[in-house]
Amino acid sequence: MEKRLTDFAARFEGAGGKLHWAPSAEDARAALLDIVKQAGVKTVVSGHSSTLEEIEAIATLKNAGVKTRRTEFGDLVTGLRNEPPSHFAHPAMHLSREQTGKALHDGLGVPTTKIPEEQADLVRQTLRAEFLAADMGLVGANFLVADEGKAVLVDREGNLRLVASLPRILVIVAGIDKVTGEADDLPILLQALSASACGQLTPPGVTILGPDARRACGAETEMHLILVDNGRTVLLADPASAETLRCVKCGACADVCPVYRMAGGHAYGSPIPGPIGAVLTPALMPKLRQNELSFATPLCGACGDVCPVGIDLHRALVAQRRTLSHRAPGLRLRLMLRLYTKAMSSPTLYAIGVRFARILVVTADLTRDTPFNPLSDWAKYRTLPGAPGKTFRAWWKSTGGSSSAGARKD
Amino acid sequence: MRIALHIPCIVDQWMPEIGISMLRVLERLGHSVTYNPAQTCCGLPALDVGCRREAADTARRQLGAYGDAEAIVSPSAACAAMMNREYPELFIGRPEEKDARSVATRTHEFSHFLVGVLGVCEVGARYEDVVTVQDCCKSRRAGCAPDEIRKLLAKVRGLRVVEQAEEGCCGFGGPFALAYPALSSAMGEARSDGIFRAGARAFVTNDPACLLQLRGIMGRRAHPIRGVHIAEVLASV
C-alpha cells in the first residue's frame, strides 16, 4: 500500500497534479476549502461518491457560501430532499417515481411528471447550463492507477465526464484504498464493479484521466486530488478488517441483505449502508455513533457470497462485534452472556442453567409486557416452544440410547 | 461407522425428538452411534456477540466429548459451521489446537453427512405430506451443497416438495433476534408468508434455531404451518 501510494503520488504530481494528503476528514475539508478560497470558486458541480459523503464535502461547501449542484440523478434527488443516499450505488432507490417527480418540481422548479424519461430530460436541460457555468468539478474516484498516476471514474449517466472536463478546476476526493497497483488490474476491477452494481459486464461510462490530459485541454486548468486516510490505516493494520478496504462500493452486499431489504438504507444512519457499511461506518465515520451496526444482522452470510472482490463479510462483521464486545448492546444481553458462559462450563451447571431457562421460557408469555423477563423481546413477536417431557439427555439415560425405545409413530 | 452425536442445547432442552430421529436414521443405516452427556454448548452464542475468549472457554470443554468417533454428526448447520470453521481458529497456537482441528474435520451437519459424506439419499423413509425447504443460511459455511436436503426429500415416499418463490433467512441470528426483535420477526414473517404461498403444509429445515424462530412466528398466525427437522422426516417410516 505504501509503495503504491508513493508511486501514485510521484506520477500524479509529475504530470502536474496537486496532491493533498488528508489524515482525517477534517483535514480533507480544510484542503477542499483551501482550494476553493485560493481559486475564488463560486459554483461547484459534483458527482456521487461515498467518500464525498464521508467527509461531508457538499455541506462544507454550502456553509462556505459556495453554490453546489449534485449531478448524478439519484444523488440530486436525495440532495433536493435534504436526505442522505439510501444506497451507495443507487442513492434514491427508496423513492417512488411520484416522490422523485415532486422532489424535482420542488427543488428545481421544473414541471411535475412521474415518467422517468421525462424526469431525466428535465434534469438534463436544467443541469447542462450549470455544467458549463461551474468553476469547479468535485468527484470521488473509483480507482487510482499507481503506475500511471491516473484517476478512473465510473458513472451510468455521463455526468462524471462533464463534471471532470468542463469546469476549469477538478477536485477528486478519494480514500487511500482506491490506489490499485497496475493498469493491468483495471479491466477485471471495472468488470467486477459494473456487473455487481448494475448487472452490465462493461461499465456504462468510464472516464480515465490524469493531470496532463486535462492540461492539454486548456492551460488554465487545475487538477487536485485529496487523498483521505480517516481511519483507513487503522482498518488496514488489523488482519480481520484489512480486506474490507478492497470494497469497490458496488452495493451488491446491500442488495442481497435481508436486513437492508427489510429496513432500507436510511435505517443504518450512515451514507454507507448495508453489510459493508456496518463494518466501515464505525471506522470511517465515528461521529455518526453507529458503532453497533454489526449487531443488526443475523449473519446469514449472503453478503459475502455475492461480494465480487471476495470480502468475507461474515468474518468482518463478527470481528467488528469483537471490538465492541466489552460494551455489547444492552446490559441485559451482556448479563445473559455472562450467565450463559458460566452455565456452559460444566454439565452440572448446564443442568441448573437450562432448568432456569425453562422457567423463563415457560413464564415468558405471562410476563411478556414486563421488564422482568429477559425473553420478553422474543415473546412480544413470537411464541416460545413448550417444554418437552424429557430432555434428550434424560431420554438417553432412561433408554440407554436405544432408538427403538424412543420410536414414535408420526 | 462409529458416530458421536452432537446434540445442541436447543435440541437437548426443547426438541429432543430431533436428536432421537437422527439416532434412528443413523442406526437404521447400520452405524454405531454414541452420545456423551458431558457436551453442553458449542460456544456459538458467545462468538456471535463478539466474545471470543468466552467462546473459546465454552468450546474447550466440548473438545473431549466425542472420544475417537470417526464422525461427529450435528442436527444444526449453525453449530456444525461453528465447529468446522471456527474451532481451529479459536485455538490457533494453543495446546488445544490439534484437538480442535480433529473435532473440526470430523464434524458434519446431518443432511450433508448423509449425502455428501456417506453418499446416501435413500434412507427408507415414508412421510405423507406437502413440504417446502427452509435451508439454514449457515449450511454453506458448514460445507453443505445447496441441493442435499432436496436430494434426501426426493427419496421419501409419500412426500411432495413445493418450492417457495424466493428463499431467504428466517431472521433468527442468535443475538440479532433479541437485539432487534422487530426486524428479526419481520424477516420471519416474510419467510412465513413465502412458505404459506408455496402451498406447503409443513416446512423442513436443517437447524433447530430456524425451527425455533419460524415456529414462534407461525405460532402467532391464525393458520400456522408446521415446522419439522429433516431428521424427523427421514426417521418416519
What does this structure look like?
The complex is a heterodimer of chains A (410) and B (237). Chain A is built from 21 helices and 10 strands. The longest helix of chain B is centred in the C-terminal third of the chain and has 17 residues. Chain B has 237 residues and is of the alpha/beta class. Chain B is globular. Chain B is built from 12 helices and 8 strands. Helices cover 47% and strands 15% of the residues of chain B. Chains A and B meet through helix 14, helix 17, helix 18, helix 19 and helix 20 of A and helix 1, helix 2, helix 3, helix 4 and helix 9 of B.
Please tag this protein with its features.
heterodimer; A: 410 residues; alpha/beta; six-stranded parallel β-sheet; four-stranded mixed β-sheet; 21 helices; 49% helix; elongated; disordered C terminus; B: 237 residues; four-stranded parallel β-sheet; 12 helices; 15% strand
- Approximately what portion of the residues of chain B adopt beta-strand conformation? 15-25%
Give a quick account of the main beta sheet of chain A: strands, pairing sense, barrel closure.
Answer: 6 strands, parallel
Strand order in the largest sheet of chain B: 2-1-3-4
The shape of chain A, in one word, is elongated
Overall pLDDT metric of chain B:
94
Kindly state the percentage of residues in helix of chain B.
40-55%
